[in-house]
């Protein structure tokens, strides 16, 4: 109360936009000693009543902090919502990609199994198939066999021809000597 009286009627208190009313009082000096304060204090101050503290409006600093916090929380909520939405989209895309990869892996595995089966059959056929040496040996044996059969055929043919000649000569002899009536 004494502080407002010393400032005068036209002064303003820092942070308040309205002037503080002051009551006309004699100027008092400011002293820092107990004695000086005791002398300057009026013994019988008139009771003027108490000043009701004025409701201060929300200041620029408090409003700025509140606005910043409110804006930051709204922006954070919006960003987290979109981040979560993008995360779900990326997760679904990744899941789809993994499923397609599994299908392709199964196809490749089936192809590999078929290739292995064909390789097994090829190996078995290779082991059972004849090589060049086997073919040339069989060819030589076949030529020998064919030559042997040809010789036997010629022997048989000459033998049959001999029998035919004998039968023919006998038939001439008998026809001249034997007459059938």
* Helix content class: over 70%
* SSE topology string: HHHH
Note the gap between the termini: 188 Å
Largest sheet: none
Overall, the morphology is: rod-shaped
- Derived structural class: mainly alpha
How many helices? The count is 4
Oligomer: single chain
Q: What's the gyration radius in Å?
A: 66 Å
Q: Mean pLDDT, as a whole number?
A: 79
Proportion of residues in extended strands: under 5%
Uncertain regions spanning at least 5 consecutive residues: 1-16
In total, how many beta strands? 0
Write the layout of secondary structure elements.
Blueprint (H helix, E strand, L loop, with lengths): L1 H6 L26 H7 L19 H69 L3 H46 L4
Explain how this protein is built.
With 181 residues, this protein is mainly α. The protein is built from four helices and no strands. Mean pLDDT is 79; it is low at 1-16.
In short:
With 181 residues, this protein is mostly helical.
Protein traits:
4 helices; 181 residues; disordered N terminus; mainly alpha; 0% strand
